[in-house]
UniProtKB/TrEMBL annotation:
It comes from Dictyobacter halimunensis. The keyword Transmembrane applies. Keywords: Cell membrane, Membrane, Transmembrane, Transmembrane helix. This is TIGR01666 family membrane protein. InterPro entries: Memb_transporter_dom, YccS_N. It is found in: Cell membrane.
Length: 742
């Protein structure tokens, strides 16, 4: 028994490790493009510096190009241009100020406090403003460590302008030629995320239903959903909104929403089938069918991204035929299941009460009958949605899709209004004032970052620590609003810095000829920025190696750079840990109950909207629109709750009882949301029976019970389940079960 228990673990452990390593080092198309783009942005200034023998000056242009690239918020071109151009202006001004004031330790300390504080507070205005604040603070820290005269300061401003222009040109050069490229990539990524979730959900075991790996896919899917909706909706509000291609993208996003809900519902029904051993002999066929669906979605994603050869008609037709065949098998089994069900049910009508074992068989047949019908309906729905998506892509004008036209519709210019501008400014000022309280998490983080950064600068300047500004630089990258994320960032940065510094020293020792450094820098730059979004530790490792070799080119006599990098990282990480723990700490275990309250509220609204649609007959557009809105809110809040719980696991103050209780809350709320999604998927196939009016009373009871649960979650009180509710639930299920079999 012991060997049989251990054998599966020994068998699967190497596979799991291999899969983890493969996932960690695999680069997708977006990562390759990011690596190539950032390598061009970074390496070209260095090459010009080497060829002109002004490497120190070219480093300033490199810093500007890098800071502007870090300010890239992604998404629509217009938003990217605004954030990068704003960062370029702020960075040039900051470089001028930092160069002039860098020699005065007290003045630069005060400026560090002010810039870190206001740069962090910009986060209240959104991701774009936060990126600009981060890049501006980054440049101040880097330049203040190299004070110089006013003449050198203006030269640096000129170099910063050149570097920013170069970074903008490389990032946005094909904007006029491919105006819909970001939107296409976002919609394509949405379909790929749905495909990945379907593949994960269809291969999990019964006891691993919605395991951690699947939860990560759920989080990625939610991010892809938000990105696609944000970019497509943003383009519709701009001059591109009148273009027919943008309408096509909008329709594709709406189809992806429906497919996502169908995938979740299908996974729930498959879980029910596994729980009761339904269709046990057909499980390989189910897995093959789901794999075919996932492949179709991948093909659609590549087609949306611009690959014409990805959508092969013969492959698509074969895959759709596989789905139809599985649906036919399920529907073909319904008559025999109904015959067995009614044959057993008729024994009660003859006055012969069912024996206990017959009652169990009767219940099992009833559940299997309903589950089989639901699976067949969901497979049909999946095939219809995929077919509709294919038709959208194949029937649209190829010239519109592939060329995207240089003229993307009429430009609608709005009239400038001083009153509107004043209203916007007043709103921004009011928002800033509202956050000037210690109850604001943004203010607490801004004060923490400003205080510890200023202290690091003062210590470095007064003690004249070599390259002491790197301590503040590490603080900027490491410090997070909560303790758990800060500790995680500290570990990743220290680990990446130590390994990267050792690798840098080995490369410097091995490469005796200086001109060999440049090809190595190109490779390191590509590897570094390819993993920037995917793996933070790998990014820091290659970035540290890149910096060490670059500094060895500019200062070949300065052999202590690797050791200084390690020491400053340790100092910055230690200061961040202490600051997060001692100064206005933000604990997820204190915030998570409020987040769970919002999650329960969203689930309650979702349940109410779905039950209202059932009671209304499922035909009214207003009810269906309410279901879609509630579904979006519920899925978002559940993903937020899961992310908050993961952050809480990094906190030392969270007790085992708190972790267990909150894990149960997070898990069961997610299951509630998924089950309601499965219920919503059958609204259109709702049978017309009067028994559905009983749902009104059930809906009210559910509402009040979830209100009690929400209040108890927020306050920490205990509640008891209402016994009448359990009885009423049994009555409703019995009534609906009888109605469904009529």
């Amino acid at each position: 028994m012991l060997l049989s228990f251990l054998k599966p673990h020994h068998k699967h452990a190497p596979n799991a490790t291999h899969a983890y390593i493969r996932t960690m080092i695999t680069l997708d198309t977006a990562a390759w493009r990011s690596g190539v783009r950032m390598t061009i942005i970074v390496v070209v200034p260095l090459l010009i510096g080497v060829l002109t023998a002004h490497l120190a000056l070219s480093v300033m242009a490199l810093l500007s190009a890098l800071g502007v690239a870090f300010a890239d918020v992604g998404g629509a071109y217009q938003n990217r241009a605004i954030s990068m151009f704003s960062a370029a202006i702020c960075m040039a001004v900051t470089a001028l100020i930092a160069t002039i004031t860098g020699a005065n330790p007290w003045l630069v300390t005060l400026l560090m406090f002010a810039l870190a504080f206001f740069g962090s507070m910009l986060g209240i205005y959104g991701h774009l403003a936060g990126k600009v604040g981060f890049s501006t603070t980054l440049v101040f820290i880097l330049v203040m460590g190299q004070p110089a005269s006013i003449g050198v300061a203006w030269m640096r401003v000129l170099l910063f302008i050149i570097g920013a222009a170069w970074s903008l040109a490389v990032s946005l050069w094909f904007w006029p030629f491919r105006p819909f490229h970001p939107a296409r990539q976002a919609v394509s990524g949405y379909y790929q995320a749905v495909s990945a979730l379907l593949r994960k959900a269809s291969h999990i075991e019964l006891e691993q239903h919605w395991n951690e790996e699947v939860k990560k896919e759920r989080a990625r899917l939610q991010g892809a959903h938000d990105k696609a909706h944000h970019i497509v909706a943003g383009q519709r509000s701009q001059r591109l909104g009148a273009h027919p291609f943008n309408y096509l993208l909008l329709m594709l996003v709406l189809r992806a929403d429906s497919i996502m809900e169908a995938v979740i519902a299908l996974a729930e029904e498959l879980a029910v089938a596994r729980t009761h051993n339904y269709h046990q002999g057909e499980q390989p066929a189910f897995a093959q069918t789901m794999e075919q669906c996932a492949k179709i979605l991948e093909q659609l994603a590549h087609t949306i991204a611009g690959n014409k050869q990805a959508l092969r008609p013969e492959t698509l037709e074969r895959s759709l035929y596989t789905i139809e065949t599985q649906e036919y098998v399920l529907r073909n089994s319904l008559p025999q299941l109904e015959k067995d069900y009614y044959a057993l049910a008729n024994t009660r009508k003859l006055g012969d009460p069912l024996e206990p074992k017959h009652s169990l068989v009767h219940a099992w047949l009833s559940l299997r009958l309903v589950n089989t019908r639901k699976l067949a309906n969901l497979l049909k729905r999946m095939g219809e949605l995929i077919g509709e998506t294919r038709d959208l892509l194949m029937q649209s004008d190829d010239q519109e899709i592939l060329k995207e036209m240089l003229q993307a519709g009429a430009t609608s210019k709005g009239n400038f209004s001083c009153n509107a501008l004043y209203a916007v400014v007043r709103e921004r000022v009011s928002l800033f004032k509202d956050n000037l309280t210690l109850r604001s998490f943004t203010l607490r983080h801004a004060l923490r970052l400003a205080t510890i950064s200023a202290a690091a600068v003062a210590i470095a300047k007064l003690l004249r620590i070599p390259d002491g500004s790197w301590i503040a630089l590490n603080i900027l990258f490491i410090l997070r609003p909560d303790y758990g994320s800060t500790r995680e960032q500290t570990v990743q940065r220290i680990l990446g810095t130590v390994i990267g510094a050792i690798l840098g020293m080995l490369l410097i020792t091995a490469l005796h000829i200086s001109f060999l450094f440049f090809p190595v820098l190109i490779v390191l730059s590509f590897l570094c920025f390819s993993y920037q979004e995917g793996n933070n530790t790998v990014f820091i490792l290659f970035f540290t190696t890149f910096i060490i070799i670059m500094l060895d080119l500019t200062m070949p006599e300065h052999g202590l750079v690797p050791l200084i990098r390690i020491a400053t990282t340790l100092a910055g990480g230690g200061m961040c840990i202490l600051a997060s723990y001692l100064f206005w700490p933000l604990w997820e275990r204190e915030r998570l109950p409020q987040q769970m309250g919002r999650t329960i509220l969203a689930n309650r609204a979702y349940i109410a909207s779905v039950l209202a649609a059932y009671m209304a007959g499922g035909n009214k557009q207003t009810e269906l629109e309410a279901v879609r809105r509630a579904s979006k809110g519920a899925h978002l809040q559940n993903v937020n709750a899961a992310a908050a719980f993961q952050r809480m696991l990094s906190e030392q103050k969270a007790t085992e009882n708190e972790i267990e209780r909150l894990h149960i809350l997070v898990t069961y709320n997610q299951r509630i949301c998924d089950n309601v999604t499965a219920l919503a998927a059958h609204i259109s196939t709702r049978p017309g029976h009067d028994e559905f009016h009983q749902l009104e009373r059930f809906s009210q009871q559910m509402k009040w019970m979830l209100l009690d649960v929400e209040d108890a979650t927020r306050t920490g009180q205990r509640i008891a389940v209402n016994p009448p509710f359990k009885g009423m639930l049994r009555d409703v299920l019995a009534s609906l079960s009888a109605a469904l079999h009529q």
